[in-house]
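If you are new to this repository, start here. Below is one unmodified record pulled from the training split, so you can see the exact layout before writing a loader.
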Amino acid sequence: MTQRPEDERPDLNRVTDAVVFHVGIVAAGAREVLETAKPLLQDERARSWSDLDPAAKEQLAHELCWTVELEQRGPYVGTAFLLAGERIRDLQRSWDRFHDNLPFDAAEWRWLNAAYGVAAEEDPATWANGHDAEPTPDFVGRLRHIASRHGHIINRGHVVEVSGGELVDRWWDWRRGAGDFTDRDAAGEAFEALRHVRDLATLIERREFE
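And here is the target side for that same chain:
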């Protein structure tokens, strides 16, 4: 295996336990998203979340919910970068490429994170820790909750209405390369970047690098 030039490899002997902790949280989230992601059913008749067949709806719900949870871990990347600086710059760049290819802007992400938090709190699985038989998270129910919500966000200095249903439909178009996302494979770019995040974060987490 060809090694990177010495000045491009992170000095993992100097990566602190705090960095490993923060990077490990991101690595676990990236693995969850990538293990869940798979080709969705390409039903051209299903143009919106409400029109999806049950199998596609369940798959979409799993992917979007895991991605929301991963996006919430973004600050851990920033903290690790502040602690380790140039030693993990490739991880920061890969995370930025992943995030830049997702179909929501910063204000929409904040609204979506808040809506998802409310939906998760209403899911009995959230409060099942320690029980003998823990229920599986109801991702379809969580996404249905998000799709039913409306609110307002400040975007580029303007107060604009946001619809959870519109955001979910946009994710569906993004995931299929349909609607406004026919010009490039943004989802493919995002998942490729996320694989880099997972691989780099796992190496840093294990303090291994070749």
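Two things worth knowing about this chain: Residues 1-10 have pLDDT under 50 and may be disordered. The radius of gyration is 19 Å.
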